[in-house]
Every structure is written in structure tokens, then in C-alpha cells.
Design brief:
The protein is α+β, with helices and mostly antiparallel strands. Helix content is 75%, strand content 15%. The two termini are 34 Å apart.
Length: 122
């Protein structure tokens, strides 16, 4: 949730300061090329991460814990699984989100770095 809040705040800050940010990018093209590089690396990692995770959990619809036993719903059929399989599927599903979180946080932090440099130059 903090990632979503940070992204929303950043989007509104960009909206309110769009002219200043655009001017800074025009004055110093290094910012623009570095931002583009960060975006490309983040997108490539996110796509790789999604493909790796989807292949790791293919066929599994959901996982659950009932009466201290671990279950996976595989193609609509509930099947008991071991604790190690349960943790494996849990970590894979969390990893699917991590790529997006890294992309959003990285871009937000880079934007605020640009804003800090811009303010110190004034």
C-alpha cells in the first residue's frame, strides 16, 4: 500500500510541476536518458519476472490453509500440498508483485531526485 500512495503522490506532483520538470529535461538531456534507461530496465525486469512466475505457478488457481493443512486449488480441484510447496507458491505470487513495486518506487525516487537537484539549482 505505501507504494501505491507514493505513486499517487508522485503523479499529482508531476501534474502540478509539469512545466518545471519538462524544462529541466530540456536543459539537461542526461536526466532524460537516465530516466529512459531506468524505465527500460524496470520494464524488462517486470516482464521477465511475470513470465518466470507464471511458469512457476501454472495451473494453480489458489492456495489456502484449512485446519493447519495446506491446500492448492489446481484446475478447480482442491489438493493437499506440503508446507514447502505452500511457501514456494506463496513466494512466487509475492514475487510477481515485486517487479512492479521496484518499477514504481524506482521511478518515483528518481523523479524526486531530479526535483531536489532542480530546487538546489534555483
Amino acid at each position: 500500500m505505501p507504494v501505491i500512495a507514493l505513486t499517487v503522490v508522485t503523479v499529482f506532483d508531476i501534474k502540478n510541476n509539469y512545466a518545471k520538470v519538462t524544462l529541466e529535461f530540456k536543459k539537461n538531456p542526461k536526466f532524460k536518458s537516465l530516466l529512459f534507461f531506468i524505465c527500460v530496465v524496470s520494464c524488462v525486469y517486470t516482464i521477465y519476472n511475470m513470465i518466470a512466475c507464471f511458469t512457476g505457478i501454472s495451473g494453480i488457481d489458489d492456495i489456502a490453509v484449512k485446519d493447519e493443512l495446506y491446500y492448492a486449488i489446481i484446475d478447480g480441484i482442491e489438493k493437499q500440498i506440503s508446507y514447502s510447496e505452500y511457501t514456494k507458491y506463496s513466494l512466487i505470487s509475492f514475487r510477481m508483485l515485486s517487479g512492479h513495486m521496484i518499477a514504481f518506487v524506482g521511478l518515483c525516487l528518481y523523479y524526486y531526485k531530479v526535483r531536489k537537484i532542480e530546487k538546489s539549482a534555483e
